[in-house]
Specification:
Main location: membrane
InterPro entries: Cyt_c_oxidase_su4_prok (IPR005171), Cytochrome_c_oxidase_bac_sub4 (IPR050968)
Number of helices: 4
Number of strands: 0
Largest sheet: none
Structural class: mainly alpha
Oligomer: single chain
Pfam family, one: COX4_pro
Shape: flat
Protein name: Cytochrome C oxidase subunit IV
Keywords: Cell membrane, Membrane, Transmembrane, Transmembrane helix
Strand content: under 5%
Helix content: over 70%
């Protein structure tokens, strides 16, 4: 039993060493860069509005992925149930939005 506890402790220590502050700092810098790109896209007045909207949507999706992956730790093992429930929520919300748009424009 002691050998198993030592093994579990060593696995936990190795995992924590691999997930040091370096990854969080990189994720934070990436989030800041995504935000700056979004601000620059809006601040550049001569850019096509459709292109600006596409840039903002892409930056928003990337920002959500960084936030969920690194700050909410959904990239780690054992987080499949929250991911499934969030995917279900996105499906329901997307369906509601598409239904509302269809109802407003084509009814």
């Amino acid at each position: 039993m002691e050998d198993q506890d030592k093994h579990v402790d060593s696995v936990i220590k190795r995992r924590h060493r691999q997930e040091g502050p370096q990854k969080h700092v990189i994720a934070f810098i990436f989030s800041i860069v995504l935000t700056l790109i979004a601000f620059a896209a809006v601040a550049a007045g001569g850019v096509n509005i459709a292109f600006t909207v596409v840039i903002l949507l892409v930056m928003a999706v990337l920002q959500v992925l960084v936030q969920l992956g690194y700050w909410m730790h959904l990239k780690d093992k054992g987080h499949m149930i929250p991911i499934i429930f969030m995917a279900g929520g996105f499906f329901v919300a997307g369906t509601a939005i598409i239904t509302a748009l269809y109802w407003m424009w084509w009814s």
